Amino acid sequence: MPEVNSELYRLIRARGEDAIAFLQGQLTQDVTALEQAKRLLAAWCNAQGRVIVIVRLVTLDDGVGLVVPDDIADAVLQRLQRYRLRARVDLSVAERDDVTGLLDARDADPLALIRAGVPHIVSANSEKFTAHMLNLDRLGAVSFSKGCYSGQEIIARTQNLGTSRRRLMRYRADAEGVSPGAAVSDGDNRVGDVVNVVGRDLVAVTPVEHHEQALAADGIRIVPQGLPYEL
Hints:
Blueprint: E1 9-15, H1 19-24, E2 39-45, E3 51-60, E4 63-69, H2 70-82, E5 90-93, H3 110-115, H4 152-161, E6 166-173, E7 183-185, E8 190-198, E9 201-207, E10 215-217, E11 220-224
Antiparallel strand pairs: 1-4, 1-5, 2-3, 3-4, 6-9, 6-11, 7-8, 7-10, 8-9, 10-11
């Protein structure tokens, strides 16, 4: 398993007596579950239920850590600060080396994430997909029993309806050259969007009804490979 490239990630520290309560009102995950779990997958969404960033929550000696992609860390911090209001919580971005040891290599290797069907949200694809489109409900990143949080109304409504017409699927391209964010087509119409790419491996949000058929992105045929979990 490859080593974690610490340059790809940054750590946002949340410290203070209201840190847990503050994050509980922002993230899709039940942050109190960190008492039993070493790491938790979570998402921070906007009011429309679109995923701003996917984070890995970790317990720190003096608070809670949010491991996020490097290119979006500063923007996430600035935006979180707006919601702090009177909460007694201090938010800051740590030095890059501080992320070392907080992630398993399999949780930070781009190719391993694609093969595991786990999306990676950076600045370029932030706020483009809902939690269900990214399969976050299937990946254990969403709590449906906790209280209110940003985007909860949309996420809960989708869950209660029991349907999400578009979902993340893993694909293998016939050749390299597919770009992140590229349109996915069925030959006649745009039906989805590429989320992440490493070489010929990729994940894209596409209609569930098309998940068993080959599609195209950037003029290259992409073939569904299935997921290691059920939708």
